[in-house]
Amino acid sequence: MVHEVAARKKPDAGADEPEGAGSPLLRALGERVRERRRAAGLTLRDLGVASGVSERFLVLVEGGKANVSVVRLDAIARALDTSASALLADAPTEAPRAAAKGPLVALLGLRGAGKTTLGSRAAARLGLPFVELDSLVATRAGMSLTEIFEMHGTAYFRRLEREELARLVARGDRGIVATSGSLVTDHETFELLRREAVTVWLRARPEDHFQRVIDQGDARPMASRPAAMEELRAILRARRALYERAAHILDTSALGLERSIDRLVKIIHAASRGRLPPPPVG
Q: Composition bias, kind Basic and acidic residues: at what positions (predicted)?
């Protein structure tokens, strides 16, 4: 007897795509949401907590793939200290890429090093774009980082990370990019970064890494893991030689927030070789 197994019916290519997904309006909206979030120094998770909208849906919004409701858009806008009408305005608020000056500066370090905080504030002071490489990867995949690792694994994340970095370089983008804490462990991607960007390791004590993450409202690193601090110390020891290959090392624990921002601004200005106005004094 021949047993036949019914093949699972494949959905239509656009079955899971919301109506209007990928339209110019939704793409423009996504760009404005992403621009506002970065200018505010927020991660996708931060915006999700503030707006009550899931991180995965925010990834779709920023990727121009979500036909967002008025209620959700209003919640997102309020969390970004703006209005839904401003996000839907016709005039783009992001400066053209051609107007960006200076070098591409890449911030290295584990979570809690201060990459988003220092990067966004230094970028605002210098009038430069700021981008998180992780956010580009999440937008490209159409899912959160957690889902990427759970569904596709580390190798898939690494491939997207390398491709998104290569896109930044190929487009000639300039500004500040915050990288993942483990990017330095991927030889090919790290070498590309070192060739094409001014690399800065934001060094911090293990205790400061932990406290900063907790201050952001995330106690997960300590949850049910009494050896978490020792694990962090071990990771820092293992990656120290890689991080030290950065062109600059900025000790955020020793300098504190404001002095770290000042130092980062000076590093970027020096690397710009006169293409940026002098950094503010004070």
A: 1-13
Residues 108/246, Cβ–Cβ less than 8 Å: yes
CATH class of 24-87: mainly alpha
The terminus-to-terminus CA distance of the chain in angstroms comes to 85
Beta-carbon-side half-sphere exposure of residue 208 (alpha carbons within 13 Å) = 16
Find out whether 113 is annotated in a ligand binding site.
yes
Is 115 among the annotated ligand-binding positions?
Answer: yes
Output the pLDDT for position 1: 38
CATH for 97-272 is 3.40.50.300
Q: Half-sphere exposure (CA, 13 Å, Cβ side) for 249?
A: 11
Where are the domain boundaries for CATH 1.10.260.40 in the chain? 24-87
CATH 3.40.50.300 intervals, the chain = 97-272
Burial label, 193 (beta-carbon count in 10 A; 0-12, 13-18, 19+) = buried
Tokens of 146: 């957690």
Residue 10 assigned to a binding site: no
Predicted confidence at residue 15, as pLDDT, reads 36
- Whether 116 has a binding-site annotation, put simply, is yes
User: Is 172 marked within a binding site?
Assistant: no
Check the annotation: does 215 bind a ligand: no
Residue 223 has pLDDT above 50, yes or no: yes
Point out the least confidently predicted range of 19-28, 49-58, 198-207. Answer: 19-28
Whole-number mean pLDDT of the chain? 81
40 versus 114: the higher-pLDDT residue is: 114
Residues 251, 230: Cα–Cα separation, whole Å: 21
Q: What is the pTM of this model?
A: 0.66
